[in-house]
Amino acid sequence: MSTRDDLTVVHVMRHGEVHNPDGILYGRLPEYHLSELGRQMADRVAEHLASRDITHVVSSPLERAQETATPIAKAHGLDLATDERLIEADNVFQGKTFGVGDGALKKPENWKHLVNPFRPSWGEPYVEQVVRMMGALDAAKDAARGQEAVCVSHQLPIWIVRSFVEKRRLWHDPRKRQCTLASLTTFTYRGDKIVSVGYSEPARDLVPAHLLAGAKPGKGVKGKDKAFGA
User: Fold this and answer.
1) Which of 109, 152, 184, 225 has the fewest CB neighbours in a 10 Å radius?
2) Phi, psi of 41 (to 5 degrees)
C-alpha cells in the first residue's frame, strides 16, 4: 500500500518528430502528426520504459503528443488519459515560418511582439506555463503515487517547468534547451515534494543532428533551420 512518503516518478516526455515539410511553427494547430521517424522514436521510448512500474500515462491533447504516448500506454495495458495543461505554449507566430536566423526578427510587423522577452510578449507567459505544468505533474504524481507516470508534452513547457524546479531564470536562449525530441525529463517525488530531476534521451540515435540540444541551425534544407519544433 502506498503512503504519503513514497517515492513517485513522473517522466515528462517530449513528443517525437512531426511531419512538417514546410517548417511551420505549428504550435497548437491541429492535424500535425508524427512522421515515420517520429513513430520510431515513440516506439523506442516505449521499449525503454517497458520494464518500469508505470501505472498512469497522460498526454497533451495535440495529435503529435497523443501518438507519442499511445505505444507507452499500450505496452503497460493502460488507457491513455488527456490533460489540457500539458498542451504547447500559445504563440502569436503560430502558423507561420518563424525561426532562428530566418530574418523574421528584422521585419517591422513583428517588433511589437518582441518588446519583452522576459514575459514573453510573443506568447503565453512563462509563469502561466509553470502553474499549469506543475498542476499536471502533481495530478500525474497523485495518480501513480508510489509508482511511475508518463506525461507527454512539448519542448517549451517542459523546459520552463524544469527551469522553475531547478531554480533557473525562465527567460532563456531557445537554442540551449536540453529537451530534444522524444527525451525524458524525470521528476522524482518523495511524498508531494520533488527531490530530484533527471534527463535522458532513449531515442538519441534517431534524432537528426541539427535537432539535438545545442545544435546550430541547419542551412540549405527547407524547413530544417526553423525553430518550429515544439
Assistant:
1) 109
2) -60, -45
